[in-house]
Prior knowledge:
The complex is a heterodimer. Helix content of chain A is 0%, strand content 48%. Chain A contains no helices and ten strands. Chain B is globular and about 40 Å long.
Amino acid sequence: DIQMTQSPSSLSASVGDRVTITCRASQTISTYVNWYQVKPGRAPQVLIYGASEMQSGVPSRFSGSGSGTDFTLSITSLQPEDFATYYCQQSFDTPHTFGQGTKLDIK
Amino acid sequence: QVHLQESGPSLVKPSETLSLTCTVSGRSIRTYYWTWIRQPAGKGLEWIGRIYPGGTTNYSPSFRSRVTMSADTSNNQISLLMTSVTAADTAIYYCARDPSDYSHSASWGPGILVTVSS
């Protein structure tokens, strides 16, 4: 299986801050990385796919980058509704493994 | 717009078989990949496997020995069977639609909480 190592596991930030979450794959996976937001009691929602493609309806303060083995999710100007848990996922090969998650909470 | 809805028992006894159905509306299941993912309480997302109704299934090695996925194109449903469940299988189970191979999971059902307990 391809391992996805996500960091940090938790992050405290304030409204208006910029944050970055990273994900490293155990082997090269081109740009087959997706990012999801998970809130309590709700199904996961894809934010970014193909490393940098924004899902329709997702605010432009979310962006993704990277290729090969190293990937980042950035959120500029954090809004109250952005405090959630974020997961990366590789879809280069099955099983489509997820990172361990990053819990973003309010400082 | 595609809509997915998971259904099945909320309580399953240890050693028994978990059986879930994902009913899809708004799209034929024939032309997409359909994935099952779960999230145990307080833990991360786990990819269980996927099915392409044209005949392909891919299972995570973590579940391969006890999971079967199938597709009912007449009723536009996807099913998951997981045998020999234990308390560790207690989780929210989601079905999701992947638009293509190598793809993200674009659409998700609301999820169903399954508890394994006697």
